[in-house]
Amino acid sequence: MTSFPTDPADWDVEKERLGLAGDLAGARAEPGAPRGEDPDVLAMSLPPYFSACPNPYLREWLASGEPVEEVERSDPGPFTTDIAEGKSDPMYKAHGYPTKVPPAAIMRFILHYTEPGDVVLDGFCGSGMTGVAAQSCGAPTRAQRQELGQEMGDVRWGRRRAVLIDLSPSATFIAAGLNLPVDHRAFDRRSKEILDQFDAEWGWMYETTDERGRSHRIDYTVWSEVFTCPACAGAVVFYEAAFNPRTGKVADVFRCPSPSCGKELTKDTAERRLVPVRTAAGDTIERVEMRPVAIHYRVGTAKKSKPLDDADLAVLRRIGSAPLPGSVPTDLLPLENMYHGSRLGPKGFTRVHHLFTDRSLTPISTQEIDRNLEGVGSVRQARSGASCVPTRGWRCQRGVRL
User: Which residues contact 214 (CB under 8 A, 6 or more apart)?
Assistant: First the structure.
């Protein structure tokens, strides 16, 4: 009989992994079983709650809940209220993921259609916001209780249980990190240690200065793709040619910046520009040319931006010449099985580490060193949260790498 601890102190993950190892053969016979090797599946899993394969404990977990009284329920009718919810929720901001929905928005549907103790199934869970919402129904903030009470009237507060499923291993890993029981004191303590240690050694990579020479922490750096003009063969920095800083819009049609040319271009008519690039992992690849074009930072709560100066460029050269402190994932990307694989390959992105800047690879490699961390559940959350730091600064928007 599997136990399902709610206190992180009672959760022996390594013992549970041994149990999962004996159940992997059966799990692999289920639809949706991963292709990865057994040790990798076990290392990624946090059983009994989360397994990077079809979970063999789901039926037991469902049976372990408090019985819900079987009574005929009245139809609540459709939920027709318009929802306007911001993206400032800390759980929403903890990790980037496509098409996320703020958990407070999902809470409204759960509260409308279900009763406390019910099980909510999300078969395409993404980063797990449905699970966060289901648990939040049992522990709403004061603001949520007041706002949703006024909006919905008779609200049946109480925790709902959630089953979260997704074919993406990164999705379920993030969802587990955001939903599993955690020792918050150990999490805070270890997170601070990790961040302080990294900042002491590598904080210089994230510093810039304003026009008065004052130092500030970089939020993110904008990298732009560089094209070749088919008329004059000159370089066209896409950000400089197509981005309007006043409106924040990127033009579909732009012109070659050469005074003697000025040809009208689009991303389809401009030619791709491939250059040799040596990555921080040590390999040299032929990849589309990218140039850093702007740094964004904050002064108090005010958001600022600036073009890179000589000191910023020197920092980037220093980063590129410094050896990584540890290893990084260099696996080949399964381009033939990826939705955008046909776009990545021709641009030179063929391995995992090619998707990250040199600056982003450094924190990834420091995480690879630090394996002996206490409180596995808490540390997995810390690692999943910290992993969003390098990826948040490297997302694509119409040819401009942000």
Answer: none
Task: Locate 392 and state its tokens.
Answer: 């948040």
Alpha carbons 389 and 378: distance in angstroms, whole number = 18
CB of 310 closer than 8 Å to CB of 320: no
Distance from C-alpha of 85 to C-alpha of 299, rounded to nearest angstrom: 27
* CA pair distance 346, 336, nearest whole angstrom: 12
**Residue 304, helix vs strand vs coil:** strand
Parallel, antiparallel, or unpaired: how do β-strands 290-299 and 215-228 relate?
antiparallel
* 3-class SS of residue 374: coil
pLDDT of residue 378: 43
Summarize pLDDT for 43-63 with one digit per residue, the tens: 889 899 999 989 999 999 998
Three state DSSP letters for 315-356: HHHHHHHCCCCCCCCCCECCHHHCCCHHHHHHHCCCEHHHHC
Residue 58 has which token pair? 């789901």
Range list of β-strands (E), 205-301: 207-209, 215-228, 235-237, 243-244, 249-250, 254-255, 264-265, 271-272, 274-278, 284-288, 290-299
HSE, side-chain direction, 13 A CA sphere, residue 94: 21
Residues in the chain: 402
Distance, CA of 167 to CA of 142 (rounded, Å): 35
User: CA dist 301 to 11, 203, 217, 297, 304, Å?
Assistant: 40, 21, 13, 10, 10
Two tokens at 310?
Answer: 């000589």
The pTM (predicted TM-score) of the whole model is 0.72
